[in-house]
Every structure is written in C-alpha cells, then in structure tokens.
Design brief:
CATH superfamily of the largest domain: Intergrase catalytic core
Strand order of the largest sheet: 1-2-3
Helix content: 40-55%
Distance between the termini: 100 Å
Number of domains: 3
Radius of gyration: 28 Å
Number of strands: 6
Largest sheet: 3 strands, antiparallel
Order of helices and strands: EEEHHHHHHHHHHEEEHHHHHHHH
CATH class of the largest domain: Mainly Alpha
Structural class: mainly alpha
Length: about 425
C-alpha cells in the first residue's frame, strides 16, 4: 500500500529568498507555497508556521480554499514581480523593460514598512501612511539616509514621483484583486486615496521641464567630448528622445531619399502599437555620416570610441615627449569598462561638468526635445512639430513646446 500523505508541512528554507517557507494543499486539491515572515529560524517565522499548522489541523490537514487572508504584502509583491517579468517585456527583444525596475523601486517602501502585513488588511490609512513616508524618506534606514545626505540628494521623493509610485502600488492591488488573491473590497478601499495636489501637500515640487536657451546650448556644446557633442546637436536637430538617438545602428537608417529616416522597433510607445520614425535633414546627415559603420550590429555612438578620441586629443596636445618607460609599460585596465551605448545619465554628467568649467547655466538632455519642439513650432507650426516629434495628439506637442513668450511679446507690441 502507498504511504499516506503527511498533513504536516515541513518548515524549510526558501531557495530564492532565503526565508522560511511551507507548502500545503488546499481544500480543492491544489498545492500552495507560502513564504513566512521574518528570517529563516526566527521566532516570527516559527510563530506563523504554528498558526498555519493550527489551521491545517482544524480543517483535516488541508487549508480552506479561501486563503486570501494569509497572503502577506511581501508574498503578494513576489507573485506580482513574477508576472511583471513576463508581462512588461520589449515586443521585439522580449527582454524585461524598465517598468520592471520602476515597479521594484515603487514596492521597496511598502515591503519595508508593511512586508509582514496581510495584504487583505492593507487599507486607505496604511496607503496614506506609506505616501507620507515616501515624501519624507522615513521608510529608509539610517545608513541609506546618511548616503543620500552625503551625496546631497533629497531624502524624500518629489510629489510627482510619489504619485507615480502610489499608482504602481494601486496597480499591484488591482492585479491581486483580478486574480482573486485578495478581496475586491481591499482594492476598492485604497482607490479612495487620491494623489497629492500641487500646493496642498508638504511634498517637494520639481522644476518643470522647459526649453533651454540656444546660446547656452551653443556655449556648452563646444566644451563637450566629441561624440557627446554630436549627440546633443542631433537631439536639437531632430527632436528625438535621447534613447532613440543613442541606440541607432547603421541598418536602421534609410538613406535613399533627400531626407534620411529611421523607423524604430524599440521606443517609448512601442507597447501601445505606435510606430516611431525619426527624420534627418542635411545638417543631421553630415553628423551621421561620420559614424556609419560596416558592422550592422554596432551602435553608431560608442563610449569606447569616445575614450579613444579623447586619449588621442590629449596625446596630440602634449608638450613634452612620451618617455620610453611610458610607451613600454603595460596598459592598466580601467576601473569601469565603457558601455555599448550612451545613456541620458552619461550625457547629463558631461553637460554638468562642461557647465561647471564655463561657469554657465546647465541643462539636461530632456530639455533639448522641448527646445526642438518650440523651434519647429515657431518656424513651421504646431502640426509640423507634432509630426517631427511623433506625437499622436497635438496637445502633447503644445505641452512640449510650452508657452512661446517671445511670440506673445511680439504680438502685444503690435496690437497692444
């Protein structure tokens, strides 16, 4: 005769998290794994283990089918992230997108504060407490706060970032409700918490992204490293996003007509089914011509190539001859290997350093798209700007271009 199945689950160590876990059968015959709160071997985890055992004994060795009250916030987040890794993927490469990282950042505070709390018991007051902790930074450890203060970073999140994080927390509970992991009433309850309003909360406000003055850009462009300078000029000429330019490859560009264009498979709104085409005029073509490569898989703009160009410029500007000992010595490996392509952080850091050397006002790369929108709108109208920027709605184009104060001054000078 087969050995009867044991109704007492084993207290064991979960391989992925290193915490305690147990597996048991529900009343409907399905098997469930539960990760216990606290560290493996802790009193907290063993107390939860005993509580589950008491439920199993009371129900003949099986957990009632309605087990939603037993799902903690930590367990809910783990289940959602498994879903996110397969759902938020690039439609072409099938690799997880930055939304996965954004969800992980948004869920870190709630796991820190409410990780052991039953997900079904998380309500509107708890969400408001979480929101306050995000804006003040009180959810962080003393060590994390010290690191932020040392790097002169804000402890609390900005109002808009807090609202975005809270939106992802609500998404977590909506997904859990749709999959019957928590009662629907839990999700409906936290929906009653509205976002923070400008001027009506103590949260930090961010500066709006506005077009940058052309003279400021011209001054800094000549102080930038060679390839970074060309990327900044392309962003101004095309109105493209920085990621769209930095990840271009030679086969992406159609050079058959007077205006070159690149239709991108990977871009910000690809998951909505939108297409994105960047057009390059004569000035942009002159820049691109210098970077076209025979290797179809190579990115046009390479950080390693820029490092080589900077080294050559330094060598050419050297006033003293290179000593034989320097020529013959082995090259030291750099502490950080250059990446395959540029990103907005690298370019922003270069702009910041150039502005500091010049004593000039600094800007960031996202402002360049706003500047391009304003320039095109002034010369060719809003519809032309919408086409170049790739917006579906004209309202978004007007948001990017902002209020053209100079045009308002000219009009009022004539009619006022």
């Amino acid at each position: 005769m087969p050995r009867p199945r044991s109704t007492i689950p084993t207290y064991r160590k979960h391989s992925a998290t290193g915490r305690a876990a147990v597996s048991f059968y529900r009343a409907d015959g399905t098997r469930t794994e539960v990760i216990l709160p606290g560290k493996y071997g802790s009193k907290e985890s063993k107390a939860e283990y005993e509580r589950l055992l008491s439920q199993l004994r009371a129900n003949g060795g099986r957990m009632p089918t309605d087990h939603r009250q037993d799902l903690s916030i930590d367990e809910l987040v783990l289940k959602f992230m498994e879903h996110a890794n397969s759902y938020y993927v690039d439609p072409v490469s099938k690799q997880p997108t930055t939304e996965v990282v954004a969800c992980r950042d948004a869920f870190r505070p709630i796991c820190r504060l409410y990780g052991n709390t039953s997900a079904s018991e998380f309500g509107p007051v708890a969400l408001q407490t979480l929101r306050t902790a995000m804006t003040t930074g009180s959810w962080m450890t003393d060590e994390e706060r010290a690191r932020r203060e040392k790097s002169k970073r804000h402890l609390g999140l900005a109002r808009t970032t807090t609202n975005t994080h809270i939106g992802r927390v609500k998404l977590l509970f909506r997904w859990a409700s749709a999959n019957e992991l928590i009662p629907a009433s839990t999700y409906h309850g936290i929906q009653s918490v509205s976002g923070l309003r400008r001027g009506r909360s103590g949260a930090r406000e961010t500066e709006p992204v506005v077009p940058v003055d052309a003279e400021t850009v011209d001054k800094i462009v000549h102080e930038l490293p060679p390839i970074t300078s060309d990327i900044v000029q392309l962003l101004l000429l095309t109105g493209a996003r920085v990621g769209e330019i930095c990840q271009l490859k030679t086969p992406d560009i159609d050079r058959t007509g007077p205006a070159w264009f690149a239709t991108l498979d990977k871009h910000k709104t690809a998951h909505h089914g939108h297409t994105r085409t960047i057009c390059f005029g004569p000035q942009a073509q002159l820049i691109l011509n210098r970077y076209l490569k025979a290797d179809p898989d190579a990115f046009l703009f390479s950080p390693a190539e820029q490092d080589r160009l900077i080294a050559e410029q330094k060598r050419a500007a050297r006033k003293t001859p290179v000593q034989p000992s320097q020529q013959n010595r082995k090259k030291q490996k750099p502490k950080k290997k250059p990446g395959e392509w540029f990103d907005h952080t690298t370019i922003n850091n270069a702009i910041r350093r150039a502005a500091k050397r010049l004593g000039s006002e600094r800007f960031h790369v996202h402002q360049l798209r706003h500047t391009a929108a304003l320039n095109i709108l002034r010369e060719h109208g809003a519809e032309a700007a919408r086409s170049v920027l790739g917006h579906k709605q004209i309202n978004m184009t007007l948001h990017y271009s902002g209020i053209d104060l100079e045009r308002a001054k000219d009009v009022m000078t004539k009619i006022g």
